[in-house]
Amino acid sequence: MDRTRIIFITIILLAVCIVGAFFGYQFISDLANPSDTASIDESSETAVDLPKDAVLVTLASSNTKEAWLDQITAEFNAAGMKTSAGNPIVVQVSHVTSGGSMNSILDGSLQPVAWSPGDQSWVEQANDEWQRRTNHPLASSACPATIYAPLGFAMWRPMAETLGWPDTPIGWDTIVKLAADPEGWASYGRPEWGQFRFGHTHPAYANSGLLSMTSFVYGITGKTDTLTAADIYAPEVEEAMRALEQVTSKYGRQAPALLELMAQQGPSYLHAAAVPEADTVRFNVERGDELAFPLAFIFPAGGTIWADQPYCVLDNADWVSDEQAEAAAIFRDYLLSPDAQEKAIDNYLRPLDNTIPLHAPLTLENGTDPRVNPNTVASLPSPNAEISSAVIDLFNITKRKATVYIVLDTSGSMEGDRISTARTATVEFLSRLDANDEVSVMVFNDDVTVLAKPARVGDVVEGLTQRINGLIADGNTNLYKAVCDAAAKLAAQAEEDVANGESRLYGIILLSDGEDTVEEVTENQMFATCLPANPEADGFRIYPIAFGDAADTSVLSRMAATTGGSFFTADPASISNVYISISAEQ
Prior knowledge:
The protein is α/β, with parallel strands linked by helices and 586 residues long.
């Protein structure tokens, strides 16, 4: 009897240990691999196994060429390449944004052996700053191109064909003329399409935005050689950019997000977006069933920036050894081999060698013109630091200004690190807004309180900073009432602006760490009476931030989808980066 009992207890203990180990593993895995609806991470990294005496080459690469680079890296690592000392080389890639990785390298938080941003302009900026600090550039030798990822604009194919695609040249001047025409598409015999609506990423935050807006300036000036600041600030260029920005309803931090929005909301939301060719073709091939119509990629007739994805060996950085630099150069040469270059086509990219014939997926059927190359559509110079600054400045001058409502949860569960970091991050966000934007701040716990009515940012930022820094956490969570109040006030503000002839962008930033606990307004009531049934290009958008595990992520993400906004998850460590992503939307 005792022996039987001992065996039984032993079995139970073993079962408990196994289950506990499983759930412990799951818990650790969840911590290591959090999932977000809207990604706020700067990079994704491909893990590798290191053999004995391996030389590790860490490469920070722009995410445009992620699929191709992952394929070539796997093949390279399997090939058993070695340095001159006989040590095996292993390459590990992290996929990053160009601007974000540049800033991280410069501030020391990212220390790769090699760096491959989207365009040479980022290399010039990084080298200039490194030269200023250390009297030498980051890379001792030139950073050669690896691949072409040309910029242009994706347009719904029926609309592109109405403009004459693929045989009639379509330039930025065509787009500006359509944007400025009060008749809109009616001038092309398609009045049912209404006014033209455009989207592009924010040039201060995104490589595609900066290069697209630089290409825009070239197209309006008619130049194909080096720009000057005087060219950019010319009255005709400012007038043209202002016309474009008045019909630009969506910005952002990454080009694929614009195409994602077009897929979700359809042709009535955006008619075209400035994006790379690779993303356009990929959406047609991989997401075609979700699209109302296929997309067409348009190369601007006056020329475009054939973003050439340079590869830099950071041998002047003190964290890179001589053998690592040698290994990184060996991998660079592997990327430039004919076999690796041809495989770029399978990943929606173009090889540097124009004699390599293009094939599927780069076909007219998939939305791009394989007849185009740098000899038929001019390759425009990349912007240097001076030109980049001027382009971003002109964009800020001409863009539609924003009216932003910041709605903050100050319930008791926000006490401690959450309310502290929320205060700091919100104040930082205010500093990123244009002085001529408008901002209002509301807080909610048991009640909803308007901390500040909409006012010009430049006039109120100092006072608001003090008010926000003094927020404390207490009480319950009147979430749905806060959303309804903010939506009603913003809708009324929009009507007033339209009556006064103003055209603005409208957004609600909603930060909450919990579910509605007051029930003054029900969930169904909020969606049925306070929020639009379908998102509108010029309507207000909600950018909910789920600040902690207790937040009602299903409701918050639905708010974003209903209004055409973006949903984020964050914690005290990541909230600042979330606010940066939202800044790019404004």
